[in-house]
Amino acid sequence: QGLPSGYLMTQIAAKVWMVSGCADEQTSADVSDVMSFGLPTDVGPGGAGGACTSAMAHKVTQNKQWAWGELLSEMRTDLRVKKYTQIPQLSSSYNLSLSEPVNFKAETVPVEKTKALLIGINYVGHAQGVLSGCH
Hints:
This protein is an alpha+beta fold.
């Protein structure tokens, strides 16, 4: 039936975006060398990591203002070109327009009050979900 428009924003006092690595019926892939996504050297040490995370990092480190729909589409294209079958998904704590600019820091919020969190999940013991580069 769905929730009333604006309901989640009255219940959650933050703008939350979640990009999952794949659709529910899929498994997110591991990458043996994330630098194969063309990431800048200052993004991290390289090595194993998530394919979706690498695709997102590759796009957001480009000097471009992305809209959510465009970013998601470009991530999916990068993964498809590299022969990954997973399809990243976007969820949000409010009614998000896919034409809304991706902005991880609100202009009106002081830097010391800004928080961002990027989580990679390792499914230990799961035959298809274990990320070999995670500890």
